[in-house]
# Entry
Amino acid sequence: MSMDIPYTVGVRTDTGLNNGKLGIWLFLASEVMLFGSLFASYVMLRVGSTNWPAGATYLNIPLAAVNTVVLISSSVTMVLAWASLVRRDFGRFRLFLAVTILCGLVFLVIKYIEYSAKFHHEYFPSTNTFLAIYFTLTGLHGLHVIAGMAVNSWLWGPGSGMWKTDPVHFTNRVENAGLFWHLVDLVWIFLFPVLYLL
Amino acid sequence: MNDTHDHADLDRHVRAAMLVFGSLLVLTGFTVTAYFLHLPTRIAIAVALLIATVKGSLVAGWFMHLISEKRIIYWMLALTAAFFFPLLLFPTFNLLGAVRLH
# Structure
């Protein structure tokens, strides 16, 4: 005997939302606190330091600027992927989601180039406090990019079968995956100036 | 955004998303330009964080649909903010107090 999970498509009368959307927002709130604690650590380390290096001393600003553009672009293609589903255009959905995943991959490749250069110059998290917080913040952010890509890849591939059986539920899933992806973009928007430019 | 959409609303939403995209690119340009102006540290921090806040608000408002969300999400985020900002500020106050003691 199977039991359906309630309110995956329809909205609850008490919240006005389906449960998936309420769940993803609760998760995003916890993510804000996770990154918030690390930003607080950055502020404490920086204010307490007598000699804080400029980001450009160690970091590559042009590469990070390109990565910012790549991530912003991926957020737009994520919106377009979701909008394509609402318009019942599954082909364009797959195209835009593929571009989103590709942008995530480009971001990670650029990050790999950046990290490789640091390790080549023997800059490690143990080198100094600035590099420790840099690797922690960008490493955690990178893990979120990988997680977002994994979810988007599943929705592009095996998970997309739901489009045929329950299109509204599938559209809600894509919207929720998009909310996570936009948060990843949002975090980078603050990481870029804080770590690289200040 | 609500769970039901008509196409006119969706077209407006997509147009707004494209405008936001253009604005984010321009603001990223401003951020990098401000860095190369070599402003005094305090002003540079204020300018960079101001631009980042505007960019973040655009992403949250339009890409994440927060301009037209349900009240329960606003309350949830207000509660998050009530913990987030003290989390950011308390260590700073603590350190400033420590500096005064010395």
The mean pLDDT of chain B is 86.
